[in-house]
Automatic annotation (TrEMBL):
Name used for this protein in its record: Mannose-binding protein c
Protein origin, superkingdom: Eukaryota
InterPro entries: C-type_lectin-like, C-type_lectin-like/link_sf, C-type_lectin/snaclec_domain, CTDL_fold
Domain (C-type lectin): residue spans on this chain: 1-116
């Protein structure tokens, strides 16, 4: 999931505030999803969040710094539920349609990655 973003010169998206979360939701709502995208989309788009270091201690990206986890929008009260089992526990974050609240899921699921790409000028590239 991360490598697709790296191919674009970015990384999986981190969301650190309510404002950022709302902006991302607006963006996702503007996308005209194709019908055959729905299988992949149905249970979410990947964010960079993970608690694979220590259960319940969430962080963004690869630095495992839990102090940067300053906001969350879990689909309460049932998520995050760390479903799955053993090495297959749910340690990664997706935003789930249609209100784009968050769920923790297993890493081997297939979803679209939500990438953030720094300082791309849309005119000059
Ligand atoms: Ca977990
Ligand atoms: Ca879950």
């Amino acid at each position: 999931m991360q490598s697709k973003c790296e191919d674009l010169g970015g990384s999986l998206a981190s969301i650190r505030s309510r404002e950022e979360n709302d902006a991302v939701k607006d963006l996702l709502n503007q996308i005209k999803w194709r019908k055959d995208d729905w299988g992949k989309l149905a249970s979410g788009v990947w964010l960079a969040g993970s608690d694979s270091g220590s259960e319940g201690r969430w962080y963004w990206g690869s630095d495992r710094d839990t102090s940067t986890w300053t906001f969350s929008d879990w689909r309460l009260p049932h998520e995050p539920n760390n479903g799955g089992w053993g090495n297959d526990a749910e340690n990664h974050v997706v935003m789930t349609p249609t209100d784009w609240r968050w769920n923790d899921v297993r890493s081997n699921e297939e979803h679209f990655p939500l990438c953030e790409i720094p300082n791309v000028n849309p005119i000059t590239g």
